[in-house]
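step: validate -> pass
step: tokenize input -> pass
step: predict -> running
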Amino acid sequence: MDNRESINPLLMDQFGFLRQYGFQFLSFDIGENKGGYWSIRFQSNVCLLEVYNIEDQADILFYPLDATSDERYGIMTFVYYISAGEKFVGYYKGNTSNWEIYKTDISNWRKQIEWIADILKEYLDKIIKIMKALPSHR
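step: predict -> pass
step: emit ->
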């Protein structure tokens, strides 16, 4: 069975809270290459937020709206900075990006999405304040 149809409802369920911060769904992409790839993007009047997984490593990136191609900030950096070096967020562990596995088992992928959403819920207020303070927002 192909679970592709269940992706969007799962993502919208887990990331629906972003609406209260002014984010709107922008795009969702999935690739079936050997290492696996997926990406979901949201945009607010402050920044673009991208949650993605490439070759089994999920990450969250924030881009200023007027960003150059090199200007982006990762969740790992934000969490480390906000916690004054007390907390480090690494990559999710588990084989979740491989499309062949995902086609038959969505449970591990769901756990990864929940893990990412929980990190965002904990730190998004502070990250938005930092993004607003960047020179591009002054």
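step: describe -> The beta strands are 24-31, 37-43, 47-54, 57-64, 73-74.
step: cleanup -> pass
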